[in-house]
Amino acid sequence: MGDIMLELDERYGEGSFWYLNPKNYCRPMYKKPKEEREEYGIGMAGLEETAIEGMKSIIDTKDEDPEGFKSEMEGLSATMIEMAPGQVIPLEDAKKVVDIAQPLVKIDCICRRMTRATLEEEDCRSCLGIGLGMFRWEMVPERYKGGAEFISPEEAKKFLEFWNKKGMVHTIMTFGKTIEGAPYIGGVCNCDYPDCIDIRFRNDYGIKSLMKGEYVAKVDYDKCSGCGTCVKRCQFGAIKKEVTTNKANIDMFSCFGCGLCKETCPESAIELVERNSFPALRDEW
Amino acid sequence: MMPEIVIDKEKCTTPFECKKCLQICPQAVFMVLPTGMHTFRENEPEEYKLLAVFRDKCVFCNDCVEVCPVGAIQVKIILGGGE
Ligand code: SF4
Ligand code: SF4
Ligand code: SF4
Ligand code: SF4
Ligand code: SF4
């Protein structure tokens, strides 16, 4: 998996992270011939069908057969990784993304719709669709059931901040691949456990359809007051308060680099450091 | 220990509208999925299917069975998860 991320950044990042390269948003996708575009499925169409088929086959697996269940899960995971690897990104990077990729569209969260049957109110839609594929979504209203609202980059930044405050993890979501083979980036999501299917798959089943971010969080013990605010924010169980030292302790192997802890620290004691700067964490995706 | 969660489709006809079990389950075991996608119209309430996708996480609390207004769910314990 380390290879996948290194390859993404090296081949498609052009000196930066792959998701900060404007070329990976949409345009290359539209250079594909029509048949190929349909094969990959712009937006969610193909993905939805595959996911639904995958879910159904999990359910059809004989109930008394845990091994079958496991192998079905693994099969689904392979499909998810192939079709739509996502990655955790911190708020700062999410804000950069909305500056380089448009249009930006507030839509209902599809995961929560499937796991908790929620329909989000107009002022609290929590998913952000990105790119020209969004225009095609209108053809299939089921996808944006509950409405779609086109917003400006400035509005999108406020929207991201709003969900960050509430404790949601930002993730880059991809759907299919662009003509150069880079994942086609189709959304910035605001996710949490257990209702986000990607976080669920990753946390509970180790399915890497959601990859760790390009950063890891590090605590400055001199600044940390041990208030414990950050502990409640971590969706990945990476922080605890060390009783003896009365400081926050982050397991950097478990950290996904979402930065939620950092955003909330009253002492600014947490820093996001590039994953690649720690030799031991470079292959931890 | 893999549970067997049986959902009676004849009784549970509009799971997205009802959503009681989906929202009460402490382990978020269930998912409701559209059975198809149409151009220019949303799915009818009947065009959804309830699935116990994450059933290996079920703790047999029976909340879903009790909350279901039409008695559509059965949760069976299979001891040992064996053959
Ligand atoms: S990835 Fe996150 S925001 Fe997007 S649909 Fe899933 S839970 Fe919702
Ligand atoms: S929020 Fe900041 S000051 Fe408080 S425990 Fe966490 S790192 Fe320390
Ligand atoms: S430790 Fe902080 S940055 Fe790392 S996953 Fe937890 S909340 Fe996110
Ligand atoms: S028995 Fe409890 S844990 Fe199991 S599916 Fe029903 S509500 Fe969820
Ligand atoms: S509570 Fe019963 S009727 Fe309602 S969605 Fe669940 S299984 Fe269907």
From TrEMBL, chain A:
GO molecular function, one term: oxidoreductase activity
A Pfam family per the record: Fer4_10
Gene3D superfamilies: 3.30.70.20
Transmembrane regions: none
Keyword check for Iron-sulfur: yes
Span of domain 4Fe-4S ferredoxin-type: 215-244, 246-275
Keywords of this entry: 4Fe-4S, Iron, Iron-sulfur, Metal-binding
InterPro entries: 4Fe4S_Fe-S-bd (IPR017896), 4Fe4S_Fe_S_CS (IPR017900), Fe-S_Ferredoxin (IPR050572)
PANTHER family documented for this protein: ADENYLYLSULFATE REDUCTASE, BETA SUBUNIT, FERREDOXIN III
Protein name: 4Fe-4S dicluster domain-containing protein
Species this protein is from: Candidatus Methanolliviera hydrocarbonicum
Automatic annotation (TrEMBL), chain B:
SUPFAM superfamilies (alphabetical): 4Fe-4S ferredoxins
Pfam families xref list: Fer4_21 (PF14697)
Domain 4Fe-4S ferredoxin-type as annotated: residue spans: 3-35, 49-78
Signal peptide: none
GO MF term list: 4 iron, 4 sulfur cluster binding; metal ion binding; oxidoreductase activity
Keyword entries, A-Z: 4Fe-4S, Iron, Iron-sulfur, Metal-binding
InterPro entries named among the record's database cross-references: 4Fe4S_Fe-S-bd, 4Fe4S_Fe_S_CS, Fe-S_Ferredoxin
Protein name: 4Fe-4S dicluster domain-containing protein
